Amino acid sequence: MKILLCTDGSAGSIQSAELVSKLRFPTNIHITVLGVSERKDDLDSLATSMDLIDKTLGSTYIIDRKIRSGE
Q1: Which of 7, 8, 47, 59 has its CB 3.0 to 4.6 Å from that of 13, i.e. a possible disulfide?
Q2: Is residue 7 predicted with pLDDT exceeding 80?
Q3: 7 forms bridges with which residues in the sheet?
């Protein structure tokens, strides 16, 4: 199973990670956290958001981070 969590640095993405952690999926699933940056200024807020998502999910899942630019 694979899960994609997208973040733009907003609080909604943290809520999505909280939902995933409450659903208690099997520990062998892969979670990709995708950050989308519209401007280079967004990179700091994306990194902070991804750190919070990692903290929320804990170390029970296999987590990959990807950052892409676009709208």
Answers
A1: 7
A2: yes
A3: 35
